[in-house]
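2024-03-11 09:14:02 DEBUG pipeline.ingest accepted 1 chain
2024-03-11 09:14:02 DEBUG pipeline.ingest length=435
2024-03-11 09:14:03 DEBUG pipeline.predict start
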Amino acid sequence: MMMGHALTGKNPWPRLYLHGLVRAPDGQKMSKSKGNVVDPLLLIDRFGADALRFFMAAMESQGRDIKMDERRVEGYRNFATKLWNAARFCQANGISASTSLAAPAAKSAVNRWIIGEVVETVAALDQAMADLRFDAAANAIYHFVWDQFCDWYLELAKPVLAPLPLAGGVGGGPDGDVALDPDTPTPNPSRKREGDLADETRAVAGWVLDQILVMLHPFMPFVTEELWSKLGERTGYPLITAKWPEPDASVDAEAKAEVEWLIGILSNVRSIRAEIAIAPGLRITVGTDHRKLTDDEFENQKSLFVRHGPMLARIGKIEIVQFFYTGTRIHLATGRLEDRTEDHFTVFGSGRPFGVGEIEYVFGLEGLIDIAAEKARLTKALEASTKEAKSLEGRLSNAAFVEKAKPEAVEKARADHAMHAAEAERLAAALARLG
C-alpha cells in the first residue's frame, strides 16, 4: 500500500505520532541479551489489560521515553477497582443509566458543582486530545473520577440518599469490594428516601457516571464497556458507539465556590484528626473570629454552616461551630442557633488553626488530647526526621557518592532527603501551633 501511494504521489497518512521507547524500570533499553525485557502479557495477567493500557497513556509525555513501573500499573488496576465499586454503590442506591445526553436540571450546590466539573473535564480532554497530549488526557479523567466523583461527590451525596444495604450484608460505600450484579433489580422504591433532592441526586449521579464511562472508554475499554452494559437499558447500542459527552451546561461559579469551601473544611478537619490521632467518632468544635469578618461574611458563614450542617456533622464529625467574640454558635446536626453573651474564645487557646479561602478557622483541641503528650510525640518525631535529613544532606554533599553511586541510588537519596526535610518542616509547624 505504501508503494502504491508513493507511486501516485499521495500522502498515505495525514499525520504521524511517534512515541518514545518503553524502557526497563532502571531506564535501560530492553533487550533479550540483558534479560530485562518485560512481557506485556504477563502484566496483563497480573493487572489487567485496562491497567496496562492506562499506564501507557498516562506515561506518554511527548519527547520522553517511558520507564516501566509495575507499581503504577498496579495503581491503575486499583483505579479500575475504585470505579467498579463506585458503580456498585450507585446501583445499590437506586442510581442507574441516564437517559439524557445533556446534564439534568439541578438545584443543589453539590449537584450543580459536579455538573460543572464534568464540563471542565470534557473541555480538558478535548484540548489534550487535539494536542496529542495523551498523558494530560489520561490524568484529567483520572483525577476527576478519583478525586471529584468517588472521593467527594459520592461522599457528599450519602446524606441525601437512603443508605441501602448491599447483597450479602456488605456495607454501602464506594470502596466496598463487591460484585456488580446486572440481574439484581433496582432496590425497592419504597425503601428510597422520598423527596425531590434525592431524586435529583440520583439523576445527576447516573448522568455523571455515564459521562465518566464514555470519557474513560478510550483508555480503559473493557471495564467501562462491562459497566455500561450492566447499569441499565441502553436500547441495544454498546459503549463504543455512544456519543461523546455534550453536557449542554456551564460551570456554576457560585456552586463551585460553595462546594470547594465545604471540601476545604472537611479536608482540613480530616488532616488534623489524622495528624493528632483523634478518635474518628469524637465530635469536635470549630470556631472562627467574628471580629475578622464583615457583616456580609458573617451572614454568609452562618448560612453556609446551617445549609451544609448535616454533611459537616456526618462526614467531619463537627458538632458545634462557634463565632468568637459573639454569642452565636450553631449545632450543625440540627441547624439550631444559640445566642450567648459569654466569650467562648478561651477554649480555643490551644486549638489548631487552618484556613479555607480568606477565612481562618480553629479546630478546638480542648478536652480531646493531652497537649503535653502530643508535644512530646511531635518533638520526638521532629528530632528523628531532622537527623535523617541531615544525614542524607551530608551524603549528597559528598562528591564521591554523587559521582560513583548508581544514578538510581542518588535519585533515591535526593527523594528521601526532600521527604524528611518536608516532614521536619511540617512537624515544626505543628509544634509551634500547640504553643
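2024-03-11 09:14:41 DEBUG pipeline.report The CA atoms of residues 145 and 255 lie 19 Å apart.
2024-03-11 09:14:41 DEBUG pipeline.predict end
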